[in-house]
Amino acid sequence: MRYENPLQLAEEAAALDIIADGRVALGVSRGSPEPALRGYEAFGYTGSKDPRGADLARDKFDLFMRAVDGDDVADADPNQYGPGVRLPIEPHSAGLREHIWWGSATRDSAKWTGEMGVNLMSSTLLTEDAGVPFHQLQAQQIETFRKAWKDAGHPGDPRASVSRSIFPIMDATDAAYFGIRRGGMDAHDTVGIIDGYRSTFGKTYAAEPDQLIEQLKADDAVMSADTVMLTIPNQLGPEYNLHILESFAKHVAPALGWQPNTDGPVTGYPIDQAIAAGADTVSTVG
Questions:
Q1: Of 1, 172, 199, 210, which residue is most buried, by most CB within 10 angstroms?
Q2: Which residues form a coiled coil (predicted)?
């Protein structure tokens, strides 16, 4: 978001959502660590007091959301409209807010996401370390988000997604690509420093389907989230990645409660039910 013009993004997102009949799912965030030092300033976006530009990203996102909601954001030319008239961004897509996700890497930013009233997107990295397994820390993040959403009084049921690297071992090719990860360093959470923060990296899941089902059922964040996004090795090409997705959809996901969606856009779990279930999980991890 540090590099975006928030009003132009709101215009383009609304137009795309209308063209796509409300099927847009737009994920935005501050942005990942980058090689450029305050690179957003080279694009004309200055004034951030944070070396990582987090304050700039949040201010822009606030303006973006006001434009998405149809708020007036600019003064009209009084020669054309008369005095005191303000204008919104056009076009306006009434349901766009429900399709927007903020990428969060901490419990604090998850709380802010809930307060903002958008969906939560959490990846395989959290830029904090609380001394607990990654999946438990991420489950706390989801619970924090849902509580903040409800406390803010937002209507509806928000969605919370987590990303996982999951590779069902179905044949010799799968074993050749990913079998070594079953016992290697990737099979465990790791802790390191990224962007100046002590961070927790989630493990890779690579096993036969029955083992994956057991492992994922023991993943608190996967079971708490209403959406699981699979990270795929795009360098291996579309055909092989389709094989990964089909293997997961046919042999793993149904055992986790997933069903193919043929009814169009979905919503998150009922908020009260999700908070109650999340509290039970979080209470076991401190």
A1: 1
A2: none
Is 228's pLDDT higher than 60? yes
Do 74 and 126 lie in a common domain? no
Tell me the per-residue pLDDT of 55-85, one tens digit each, with 9 for 90 and over.
Answer: 999 999 999 999 999 999 999 999 999 999 9
Point out the domain boundary residue: 70, 96, 122: 96
Instruction: Decide: 4 and 44 in contact? Cβ < 8 Å.
Output: no
17 shares its domain with 146: no
Exposed e or buried b per residue across 49-70, where buried means at least 16 C-beta atoms within 10 angstroms of its C-beta: eeebbbebbbebbebbbbbbeb
Kindly state whether residues 16 and 47 are assigned to the same domain: yes
Q: Give the start-end residues of each E strand in the chain.
A: 26-28, 72-75, 86-88, 100-103, 119-122, 125-126, 160-168, 190-194, 197-201, 204-207, 227-230
* Distance of alpha carbon 56 from alpha carbon 42, whole angstroms: 14
Tokens 């737009």 map to which residue? 26
Three-state secondary structure call for residue 122: strand
Residue where a domain terminates, one of 48, 75, 96: 96
Residue numbers of the domain that contains 2: 1-96
Q: How many domains does the chain have?
A: 2
Which residue's structure tokens are 């904090």? Answer: 128
Amino acid identity at 19: I
Exposure string over 23-40, b if 16+ CB within 10 A, otherwise e: ebbbebbbbeeeeeebeb
Share of the chain above pLDDT 70, in %: 95
How many CA atoms are closer than 13 Å to the CA of 162, on its beta-carbon side? 30
Same domain, 164 and 281: yes
Residues 62 and 159 in one domain: no
Considering the entire predicted model, what is its pTM?
0.89
**Cα separation of 168 and 205, whole Å?**
8
Give the lowest-confidence range in 96-110, 117-131, 189-203.
189-203
